[in-house]
Amino acid sequence: MEPAPGPQEKYHLITRNLQEVLGEDKLMGILKERELKIYWGTATTGKPHVAYFVPMSKIADFLKAGCEVTILFADLHAYLDNMKAPWELLELRTRYYENMIKAMLESIGVPLEKLRFVRGTDYQLSKEYTLDVYRLSSMVTQHDAKKAGAEVVKQVEHPLLSGLLYPGLQALDEEYLKVDAQFGGVDQRKIFTFAEKYLPSLGYAKRIHLMNPMVPGLTGSKMSSSEEDSKIDLLDRKEDVKKKLKKAFCEPGNVENNSVLSFIKHVLFPLKSEFVVLREEKWGGNKTYTVYEALEKDFADQVVHPGDLKNSVEVALNKLLDPIREKFNSPELKKLSSTAYPNAAKAKPAEKGTKNSEPENVDPSRLDIRVGKVISVEKHPDADSLYVEKIDVGEPEPRTVVSGLVQFVPREQLQDRLVVLLCNLKPQKMRGVESQGMVLCASSVGEPRQVEPLDPPAGCCAGERVYVEGYEDGEPDAELKPKKKVFEKLQADFRISEDCVAQWKQKNFLTKLGSISCKSLKGGSIS
């Protein structure tokens, strides 16, 4: 039997690979006297993805350090966050999260009996907790509440009051779960400092806060449940994992925002204390790294090729996903998955010749719409009314797009601007140049015709997903089939609101930073 780790070793296990710790002295003080009590919470919204292995890996570290760990399924938070989980789906999504998180923990060898699992609604609807919510709301300004939730709560043009309550509830959870520390991503930092400021005002102790770095998504930005291109789903098939990793941002020698390296550092290395790069003998054969920094240096020096790195991660990742796939292959969990996330369950097209088949599901989640940045604009060599643009949409190479905007938008106004691009139309030649997407624009209703490219919110990055409010969890079609006319059916309900916001059936087009809009064409159409 191994001897119990001392305070210094416990401190190392608890804090390794973290980006920031608030309350280091207090943490060491507790470890010298007793075991640390800590909790990690997750709002039961979109489906968990492989980046969730990062907190799972840290939970394994906490247990090795002897911590008493609580996992909170924050079901009420999921509803308060702009109704990301509708009330009628709340119970189903919470059950899905419980099963999925436990399956993830089991796949990395974490003993479930050492963990305490709690639902938010188990205590957040009590008289005492509710009274504390009211007490807190009498102290917190609207400015502080909005600022605290800015990185976590979904930002929309007309925010609901519920989103302002969210940070206060998360602060109170620290007291009601009777913990010393809260663990989360660095995107939670503003909520953590909010808790440190306001809990003492209620007579409660200030807690320790431990923060993980945010793992880059496959496109180089944050990995997100609502951005399909940025993530690998925990139930993705092996061929889908291969396809997504193949497209992942992993530039030779570039270690910044590299999702593949980041996953190795924060998940695979802590679990195994080593990582094996698989290579053919002619390229030097397999190489085992026992120190992450050595792997990062070899990649920076281009000793390790991105293709070999991706292939090696694919093998290691599938070993983690196999037991999860097997567990969720049961009829009971298949049904739970489809009922908890109905928009993600695509209706299968009817077989040719079949009568009385279900109509094909046509909702806006089938559209692959992304933020793009225009890199270059040239006149079409054979058509005076067309531009040929190179547009970055977060892929290894920019897309070539042909747009009929010459008479509406000066070339210099397109250069370097952010646009909204429909990316899964079938490529087609326009006067001899293949166009790989469509720039979405607002158009005036009357004459003379006016056209304005749609504008993403300031601060967006190329490749960020654009989705319709309430349809963020669906998976876009790989390619829209022209005969099915999916885009045309949906486009019939595209409109510009009186506030110049792009909408489908009065639901806003959004990115994680807010609404898609145009400059002035109120009541116009979108094409």
From TrEMBL:
EC number: 6.1.1.1
Keyword Kinase among UniProt keywords: no
Pfam families: tRNA-synt_1b, tRNA_bind
Recorded catalytic activity of this chain's protein: tRNA(Tyr) + L-tyrosine + ATP = L-tyrosyl-tRNA(Tyr) + AMP + diphosphate + H(+)
Family membership noted in the UniProt record: Belongs to the class-I aminoacyl-tRNA synthetase family.
Chain intervals for the UniProt region annotation (Disordered): 339-365
Biological process terms in GO annotation: response to stress; tyrosyl-tRNA aminoacylation
Compartments (UniProt record): Cytoplasm; Nucleus
PROSITE patterns: TRBD
Lineage of the species this protein comes from: Eukaryota, Metazoa, Chordata, Craniata, Vertebrata
One GO cellular component term noted in the UniProt record for this chain: nucleus
Top-rank taxon, per record: Eukaryota
Organism for this UniProt entry: Pampusana beccarii
CDD domains in the cross-refs: tRNA_bind_EMAP-II_like (cd02799), TyrRS_core (cd00805)
Gene3D superfamilies linked to this entry: HUPs, Nucleic acid-binding proteins, Tyrosyl-Transfer RNA Synthetase
Keywords, alphabetical: Aminoacyl-tRNA synthetase, ATP-binding, Cytoplasm, Ligase, Nucleotide-binding, Nucleus, Protein biosynthesis, RNA-binding, tRNA-binding
Domain called TRNA-binding: residue spans: 363-467
Name assigned to this protein: Tyrosine--tRNA ligase
Molecular functions (GO terms): ATP binding; tRNA binding; tyrosine-tRNA ligase activity
Composition skew (Basic and acidic residues), residue ranges: 348-365
